[in-house]
Amino acid sequence: MYISYNPDHNIGYIRFKDTQGKVANTISLSGDLNVDMADDGSIYGIELLNANEQLKGTGTAIIVENQQSHILRELQI
Predict the structure, then answer these.
(1) pLDDT at 58
(2) What is the rounded CA–CA span in Å between residue 36 and residue 24?
């Protein structure tokens, strides 16, 4: 998984797998949320437009939890 943020355009992106940039279809769920689908019908990634507003209140870190081991990892942003 790869998470990126472009502050110039205020866009966040969560990429689940590498398909060499070949997105087959983009589904717009709202004005601020798009889901990119791969050729095989699986989810390639999620695009957050106006990302800082959507993630408002999350602080200055991303917390990743392994729910099986209950290990938390904090990623500073």
Answers:
(1) 56
(2) 7
